[in-house]
Amino acid sequence: MTQPTRIYKHSSAGTDWAALALGAGLGLTLALQLTTVRLSDFNTFYSIVVSLSRLTALVGTYFAVVGMFLIARIPWVERGVGHDRLVTWHRKLGPWSLYLIGAHVFLIIVGFAGQDSIPLYKELWQFLTLYEWMWFALAGFVLMVLAGVTSYKKARAKMSYETWWMVHVLTYAAVAASFMHQIVNGSMFVGHPLNKTYWISLYVAMGASILYWRFWVPFYRSMKVNLKVAKVVVEGPGVVSVIMKGKHLDTLNAQGGQFFGWRFLAKGHFLMSHPFSLSAAPTEKHLRITVKDLGDHSRSLAFIKPGTRVFVEGPYGAFTAGRSTQPHVVLVGGGVGITPVRALMDEFSGGAQMDVIFRASKEEDLVLKAEMDYLANKSDGSIRVHYLVGSRKNHPMDANSLKALVPQFADSDIYICGPEPLVSAVRKAAVDLGVPKNRFHDEAFAFHKE
Amino acid sequence: MKRAYLIAGGTVGGLGAVLAITPPQLSSGDLNIAGGTAIGSVSTSASASSSPTAVATQTATKGSKPVATKKATAAATAAASGTAATTEPAPQAPAASTSAVSGTFTGPSVNVNYGNVQVQITVVNGRITDAVAVKAPSGKNDRYTNMAVPTLKQQTLAAQSANIKGVSGASYTSYGWFTSLQGALAQAGL
Questions:
Q1: Which residues contact A49 (CB under 8 A, 6 or more apart)?
Q2: A19: chain B residues, CB-CB within 8 Å
Q3: Of A301, A369, A374, B152, which has the maximum CB count within 10 A?
Q4: Is residue B3 part of a domain?
Q5: Does domain A226-316 have CATH number 2.40.30.10?
Q6: How far apart are CA B62 and CA B45, in angstroms?
Q7: Host domain of residue B53
């Protein structure tokens, strides 16, 4: 279980290129309108309204397409940015896409109604009946609004994960449904073949990426590695480890610190893809996750039968040993965030001096403690583990206390995974102690909650 | 922060590159102007209808209000400012007021999404006596044509210019008629 795998050195060049490409795409999208405007688009109030509606449509749609690219699970994007950050960006971009497209719908009805001098509802009806593909566009818009409304924090909190997920997935349908009305009615596309080509290519690239990396690759790899539950081990009260056995696991290219989406093909489980971190570095034949009792689904993992097939999506996550630059690393895990930290211990073993800080509120939350003690004991001093149990008052995790605990803190690579308050506190401490950004690696666990 | 700059830079770069290759054609229509009229070669001073002194017999001088619906507003301003062209004060007027034009004039074929519209006008002694669509969307889209063309013709004859309102519900066809009509008028020197 403690065989360290290759450490992939990480370069940020890929993400930089992606950012540039994103910007270029936005520039091209804006150019679609700017190269096809006419003076008449600005000479009356309503024509300006209509021009504005076109602009908001273009930018809103571009944001939606980019949002889809972000979660298409493109490997170099995942590796470069990290899944948690991608999801955060997706969450931030989504609402803007909806607002802009909503503005587009409103403005164009108002604009055309004004130019035609007819009431809004009549204009809406004209849209639906006179132009092609408008019913589909309307359907797409409704689906998008639904997805947006259900993702609103307060609404989301009130529904189950499955319900939210089903509605959200309909965004695919929304994007597909509204595509045709853009190409067929958009003034920047009609009679402008180059513009059409660009727009169609954008959609095709997005669709292909999703079909390939979001759906096909996970399916294909899962079939190839043939993963099955080998053993379920109770680690402590409410905590179990699930050990899975498969073949050709090296083809997954997984590293400790990363996580997968695990789909157990058993009754009541196959609709869900649980994001759990590996709790040990992968070996040739085995993968391990350690799961705490967080909800209905997690709890019932304790009763998963050995032999159950498992489908995997991933590996995801930029929380890897390959990002370190110093010979000394400080690994901080809070609560269930200790799992990737434990896996990183395997990766760094023999390669770096480690100080592992396990922060928990109660003694019984110290999951995998026995294992970590064992690793520390036989490490000849290269691994030191510190257990900080208690309330935030006892362990403020600020610059002073961390420096006292680990004198070389400022010269180390810091890895932290845990709840947001802990990550924020340690981040602030790192900043205070002068740790440069590229030596601070964090993974947010918030989205892992179901 | 670096990424933000990269995104911003990419946007500006992409936009700039495209605009450099295909700058926007702000004037409306791709009209071939026969005769010395300024219509179609209007630069950007759309609103500057300065010299009402110009004969401006047919083309509108009262603030370019009416105009066909939706996209057709372009042509109107071009028509209006044709009289107030940037350089010459009273451009095409001289020709029109003195000689009486007669003949048939065909405007350009304008693509309007569903098909093409091309207008041909018959002018007798400076008066438009007929206007027909030699090209109009047909097939499944002939409902717009059938609905709109008779009205468009009527409006044209009534206005004796391109100062027509267009037909609601047939905005593309109206726009095509309008643009093509302009071209035909320009050729006629009206």
A1: A107, A108, A110, A111, A114
A2: 3, 6-7, 10
A3: B152
A4: no
A5: yes
A6: 16
A7: 26-188
Identity of the residue in B15, B42, B70 whose CB atom sits nearest the CB atom of A27: B15
- Residue B122: enclosing H or E segment and its boundaries? strand B116-124
The pTM assigned to this predicted structure is 0.67
- Round to whole Å and give the CA distance between B177 and B171: 10
Is B72 in Cβ contact with A40 (below 8 Å)? Answer: yes
Instruction: Please check the confidence at residue A75 and state whether its pLDDT lies above 50.
Output: yes
CATH 3.50.50.60 assigned to A13-220: no
Contacts of B44 (CB under 8 A, 6+ apart): A39, B26
Q: What confidence tens digit (pLDDT) does each residue in B5-30 have? A: 999 999 999 999 999 988 887 764 43
Closest chain B residue to A122 measured between Cα atoms? Answer: B169
Query: How confident is the model over B155-190, as pLDDT tens digits?
Result: 898 888 888 888 877 778 888 888 899 889 888 888
Q: What is the ipTM for the molecules in this complex?
A: 0.71
Question: DSSP assignment of A10-52, as one string?
Answer: P-SHHHHHHHHHHHHHHHHHHHHHHTT--GGGTSSHHHHHHHH
Residue-wise pLDDT tens digits, A12-24 = 777 788 889 999 9
Cα angle: B24, vertex B77, B44; to 5 degrees: 40
For residue B28, give both structure tokens.
């409306």
Three-state DSSP state, A285: coil
* B82 band by pLDDT with thresholds 50, 70 and 90: very low
* pLDDT mean across residues, chain A: 88
C-alpha dist (Å) from residue A268 to A162, A223, A265, B138 = 12, 21, 9, 57
Pick from A241-250, A318-327, B40-49, B93-102: least confident: B40-49
Query: Looking up tokens 């100080």, which residue turns up?
Result: A355
Q: For chain B, how many structural domains are there in total? A: 1
Listed in sequence order, the residues at least 6 apart from B115 whose beta carbon sits closer than 8 Å to its beta carbon are B135, B136, B137, B138, B139, B141
pLDDT value of position B144: 67
Return the residue of A nearest to B168 by Cα: A116
- Which of A23, A118, A185 has its CB closest to that of B7? A23
Whether pLDDT at A34 is above 60: yes
Alpha-carbon span A389 to A385, nearest angstrom:
13
Q: Do A39 and B75 touch (CB under 8 A)?
A: no
Is residue B87 one of the residues assigned to a domain? yes
pLDDT digits (tens, 9 = 90+) for A330-385: 999 998 889 999 999 999 998 899 999 999 998 888 989 999 999 999 988 899 99
φ/ψ (deg, to 5) at A274: -80, 130
Helix (H, G, I), strand (E, B) or coil at A193: helix
- Ranges of each domain in chain A: 13-220, 226-316, 322-448
CATH number of A322-448: 3.40.50.80
Tokens 């590293």 locate to A255
Look at residue B170 and tell me if it is in a domain. yes
What single letter denotes the amino acid at residue A339? T
